Amino acid sequence: GALTVAARRPGAEGLRGLAACWRVAVDQGAGLAAGLDRLEAALRAERDQRNDLRAQLAGARATAVMLAGLPALGLLLGTAMGADPLHVLLHTGAGLGCLVVGGALEGVGLWWVSGIARRAEAA
Q1: Is residue 22 a contact partner of residue 14, using CB atoms and an 8 Å limit?
Q2: pTM for the complete prediction?
Q3: What is the rounded distance in angstroms from the CA atom of residue 83 to the CA atom of residue 95?
Q4: pLDDT tens, position by position, 53-74
C-alpha cells in the first residue's frame, strides 16, 4: 500500500510496478526476483526512449534558437557596413512595420517549435 501511495509522485511510476510484483510474490508465491528483473528492463527501456527523444528534439530546438538570433546578427552586420538599421527600424514607417511583422513571425515560430517539442515529449 505504501509503495502504491508513493508511486503517485512524479518520477516514481516504477514503484507501482514494484508494488504489483510484491503483491504477486506475496499472494501467489511467485519469485520476486524475476518480476523485478522484468520491471528493471522495462524502466530502462522507457528511460532510454525518453533520452533518445530528447536527443532528437535537441536539433530542432537549437535550430529555433539560432533562427531567433539571426535578426540580431542582421542588425550587427548592417551597423558594421555603415548603415543605421536601428534608426530605420525605429524611426520609419516601413521599418516599424517590418519590426512588428518580423517580431510576430519570430514569436509564432518559437511558439510553434516549442509546441511540437512539448507534444512529442508528452506522447
Answers
A1: no
A2: 0.59
A3: 13
A4: 889 888 888 888 888 889 999 9
Phi and psi, residue 65, nearest 5°: -65, -40
For residues 69, 71, 72 and 76, what is the CA-based torsion angle, rounded to 10 degrees? Answer: 130
Please write down the long-range contacts of 32-40, taking CB distance under 8 Å and 24 or more positions apart.
39/14
Q: Convert the pLDDT of each residue in 3-12 to its tens digit.
A: 777 767 777 7
What is the C-alpha to C-alpha distance for residues 123 and 121, in angstroms, rounded to an integer? Answer: 6
Cα separation, 7 vs 13, whole angstroms: 5
Query: 3-state DSSP helix/strand/coil percent for the chain, to nearest 5?
Result: 85, 0, 15
List the end-to-end C-alpha distance of the chain, in Å, as a whole number.
Answer: 29
